[in-house]
Amino acid sequence: MPMPLMLILLLILQQAIAEPRELWGLVKAWPIPLPNWILKILQNVSWSAKSAYKILQDYSLLTWLLSILENKFLETPLLCSIISLLHTLWVTNLGHRGVELGSQPRCKPGSQEPPKLLALHLVNEFLYVLIVLMKHLRPALPSAQLASFFRVLNSVLKYRATVTQAFRDMDRFTVNETVLSTKNVLILLHKWSLIGRDTGLQEDLRAAIEKYQVKELLKMLKDKNRPVVAARSRGPWGQRRRPGEAEEAADPELQVSSLETCKGLLRSMLTHWGPVFPSCEPAQEPADRTTPESRAPGPVHATASLATTWVLCSVTIDPLSRADAAGLLGWLKTHILPQPVIVADLLGDSRVRSGIFKLYSRLCSTKGLSGPVQSVACLLNTVMLQLVGARGPAGSSLRPAVEALHLASLKEEDEATLAAAAFLVSLYIKDVWLGAQRPDTLLTHVQMVCDSAEDVPSGNEAVFVHCKELAASAPDA
């Protein structure tokens, strides 16, 4: 870009940040749509790593974008340009740095040498702008921009987790590790229910929002049901709403593949939410307690239950990558399973129970019990055993023995021994989850292996040892 034009642009940006209302006079007098013109030039500039970093640090570009996003309504072309610019800025500044969790080399504990990561404050600035932009999402946006938004927000959340983990590895203190609030999650689910035309989720959200009187969401519900009228929004960057741009007006060209992509990204984003439950509501309860507390759950519990239900129902169709499966299971284990009220809601929903079993059957197949995905299968066994315990008293005396086998196997370093234990645990879980009073499939397999002890092939001794221990632990099972 010629230097004079660049200087003019930077002057315009500085004026926009300092006095956006005075700049509006220039915008109205300009012969072309100035906001889009500025954004398109900035996007071209942003492909250069040096320029992208400079306009962020020296000219507070994210602050300027935030001032635009604070308007009540933005015209679709302007909103699309902002999404494209944010995506370009993030990708360019990220550069060669990995965006997946665990892709960065971990520091040794106590090391003072920081890894080559983006500054946490810059990541936080991107995240804040994206969360504000989230309120402007609507079905009328082109599918490419919707997918681009979900990609960049998911990438920022993952990268922030990477930076935070790097700080922990260096024994550094980080302030405010919470990245998404309960309201943010409700807005995400609300926007997705409109984009994906999920009427069931819309009704569940409406009931929760009205019950707990979430003001911002109540206003969104009212705006959704308001007829389309031409109205100029507040602020210098507000644009006139065009016919057909109401939130409920779905994009006819929205491709199924784009929807599925957005759904998978949303599922990944929700696993970065660490719900903060009120301290007065205990998180730890006996594992065999299935009835919720007498007092009604609060909005955090209701939101967590809604989000978890949607996530678990959505995975029945869409295959999960190894990283996404590990992230989902870790989130369930850390944030959801310690809450008996939420677990009771999940187990009381037949759709969730069916979704969990389909996910389990897919991830804990014979192929999933060995090789690189073995760790995911073991983590899923941990989650499933907790859920089985929450359903009620053991239907068989084998359960303590199976749980002990599973816990002991997690300490094993031999892959064959770990795979054998995971296989036996999976036989028990599949029987009990489907309502069997006795785990007949497991018992039959144990008996068969014990009866053919002399014929056990070399290398399968681990299976025989485990079966012998199970048979001895529950002779009357």
Summed up, what is this model?
The chain is 62% helix and 0% strand.
Description:
This protein has 477 residues and is an all-alpha fold. It folds into 3 domains: 1-107 and 114-176; 180-227 and 251-269 and 295-331, no CATH class; 364-477, no CATH class. Helix content is 62%, strand content 0%. The chain is built from 21 helices and no strands. The protein has helices spanning 3-18, 20-29, 34-46, 49-57, 61-69, 76-94, 120-134, 143-169, 182-195, 199-212, 215-225, 256-270, 299-314, 322-336, 340-347, 350-363, 374-390, 398-409, 415-433, 440-451, 461-473. Helix 13 packs across helix 15 (340-347) and helix 19 (415-433) crosses helix 21. It starts with a helix and ends with a helix. The model is unreliable at 20-32, 99-105, 108-112, 227-251 and 280-294 (pLDDT under 50).
Overall domain count: 3
| Assembly of the depicted chains | single chain
Strand content: under 5%
Cα gyration radius (Å): 26 Å
The secondary-structure element order is HHHHHHHHHHHHHHHHHHHHH
- Based on Cα principal axes, name the global outline: elongated
Gap between N and C termini, in Å?
A: 78 Å
The largest sheet is:
none
Count of runs of 4 or more consecutive helical residues: 21
Keywords:
21 helices; elongated
Summarize the SSE layout with pairings.
Elements: H1 3-18, H2 20-29, H3 34-46, H4 49-57, H5 61-69, H6 76-94, H7 120-134, H8 143-169, H9 182-195, H10 199-212, H11 215-225, H12 256-270, H13 299-314, H14 322-336, H15 340-347, H16 350-363, H17 374-390, H18 398-409, H19 415-433, H20 440-451, H21 461-473
